[in-house]
């Protein structure tokens, strides 16, 4: 038995001790206010980035590249992971969470620019991202280095995922769709671990967002207004 699993079980025992009473109100049903779609990168602590330790508050989805798109024989649709809480638990806010230095965006960028490939399961995920990121690769400012290009594409990917949700008939018009970037690499110049709002219901202008949402004006920022 690897020590990693033993450590996990020990930490779970501590978790269970702390959370004994926290499930009292949500044992039979859930009505989370928000569904978040995060990258499954180990550095993105999906509940902790919001300071959340209350069961039932946030419906959390995770995959490489924070994708909201699911590929089917009939075409691309909103992923069931994201759609479920909106359709069945009354959730009215969706937050797409990209992050600085995203590995899935990096791999997609490499596939589009250098033709690099990966294992079939990973290729499937990248193939879903490619058509949404490819236009952004061609629009990148010419003076960017590789790191800068990838972080610009992180924002671009968040924008495309938000756009897909807004364009889908499966997401009602009264559902708020927000795009953010979680930064732990000093890309935005704030504190490590801060979330930066880059898109609200399709609006990406920093100036406009700050004017429309003064309560969060200090959290609105972008690297790229294309």
Uncertain stretches: none
Q: Quickly give the CATH architecture.
A: 3-Layer(aba) Sandwich
Structural class: alpha/beta
- How many helix segments? 6
What's the average pLDDT? 96
Net shape: globular
What is the fourth-level CATH superfamily?
Answer: Carbonic anhydrase
CATH class: Alpha Beta
User: Roughly how many Å is the radius of gyration?
Assistant: 18 Å
Order of helices and strands: HEEEEHEHHHEEH
Strand order of the largest sheet: 2-1-5-6-7
Roughly what percent helix? 25-40%
Q: Mind describing the biggest β-sheet?
A: 5 strands, mixed
Named CATH topology:
Beta-carbonic Anhydrase, Chain A
Taken as a percent bin, the fraction of beta residues is 15-25%
For the record, give the distance between the C-alpha atoms at the N and C termini, rounded to a whole number: 51 Å
Instruction: Write down how many β-strands occur, each being a DSSP E stretch of 2 or more residues.
Output: 7
Count up the domains. Answer: 1
